[in-house]
Design brief:
Strands 1, 2, 3, 4, 5, 6 and 7 form a seven-stranded antiparallel β-sheet that branches. A five-stranded parallel β-sheet has the order 10-9-8-11-12, with helices on both faces. The protein has a five-stranded mixed β-sheet with strand order 14-13-19-15-17. The chain starts with a strand and ends with a strand. The chain is built from seven helices and 19 strands. The protein is of the alpha/beta class and about 325 residues long.
């Protein structure tokens, strides 16, 4: 399967904070880029062959550019280091068209935007959109220190600056983020959006659920899989519905890897069960879900799974491929 790509050029690179750089991507031919909604991301095909997802953090009304920001993670899987070490102004890249798994709820009475570290990227885009439409919102941006806080100048100059509060862990006597108070002060009908490190997000979501926030008012996007997520399991088989071919999936091998070894390509991006790029329909059998993408209801339906990380509880899965 071939995924449509856009040809872009790195029009500008800028250091935004300690370890964080932003990259402005423009169409290679100077034409307008496809429109996107707040919360969207693109897949970036890096020069070293990796494909990684990055949220768009510019105003969705802009059609001349996409803006991404990337934190260099020395302990990561190589994507962020490749971005920082290899991408320069003038470089040409291929990216996917924008996709959105983290959309704003248009009918919400109020929006509570919570960003942790580099998780500010989709949250900032949301703030731009909400401000442009006159929607009611508050934004809290939590970082380890001011040095590690990206887009400080942009936020200070924004028309919605009064709706934003910054919280730094190392600021003595500064504004400490109080999740309990923030949730209790939220107007009735508020929708919550959170993005950032896994620990930050789990803390926010667990606190909201403990305070009886309904699940349909909690919106989130994970950057990485849970640290304790199982990655292996026993042997099973997958059958390709279109051809009838049956393929063994041994331990220590993902479904994606087993399929690729037999010439069946499934497009992937994060390879951690986070992004949903490889989502595949299951026609028969019971998946063993290990992703961070599907909801509990979607998992219970057992009619789709993410073959980059999930496996099977039944001996055979029949896939709609």
């Amino acid at each position: 399967m071939n995924q449509p790509v856009l040809n872009v050029v790195v029009a500008r690179r800028r250091d935004e904070a300690l370890g964080i750089a932003s990259f402005e991507l423009a169409s290679e031919n100077g034409q307008a880029l496809p429109a996107f909604d707040a919360g969207s991301h693109v897949d970036v095909h890096l020069p070293n062959g990796l494909v990684r997802q990055y949220s768009l953090c510019n105003d969705p009304r802009e059609t001349h550019r996409y803006l991404i920001a990337v934190l260099r993670d020395e302990a990561g899987r190589g994507g962020s280091k490749a971005v920082h070490d290899l991408l320069r102004e003038g470089d040409r890249l291929q990216i996917s068209a924008p996709r959105n798994h983290f959309a704003l709820a248009d009918d919400a009475a109020h929006h509570l935007l919570l960003a942790g570290g580099i998780g500010v990227t989709p949250i900032l885009c949301m703030a731009e959109r909400l401000a442009a439409t006159g929607a009611s919102f508050d934004m809290h941006y939590c970082t380890r220190s001011k040095q590690r806080t990206a887009f400080v100048e942009r936020l200070a100059q924004a028309g919605f600056a009064k709706s934003v509060q910054l919280h730094h862990d190392d600021h003595p006597g500064g504004s400490t983020f109080d999740i309990e108070q923030t949730l209790s002060n939220a107007p009735a009908g508020t929708h919550l959006y959170v993005c950032g490190p896994r620990g930050f997000m789990d803390f926010v979501l667990e606190t909201a659920r403990a305070n009886d926030w309904p699940e349909d008012r909690l919106h989130y996007e994970f950057f990485g899989a849970a640290a304790n997520q199982p990655a292996t399991g026993g042997s099973f088989q997958v059958r390709i519905a279109s051809s009838g071919a049956t393929i063994d999936v041994p331990p220590e091998c993902t479904v994606v890897q087993a399929l690729a070894a037999h010439g069946v390509e499934v497009i992937t991006s994060c390879e951690q069960g986070v992004c949903g790029t490889c989502l595949t329909r299951v026609l028969s059998g019971e998946p063993d879900h290990h992703d961070s993408y599907l909801t509990d209801e979607e998992r219970a339906a057992n009619d789709q799974f993410l073959p980059c990380c999930s496996r099977a509880k039944s001996p055979l899965l029949v896939l709609d491929l």
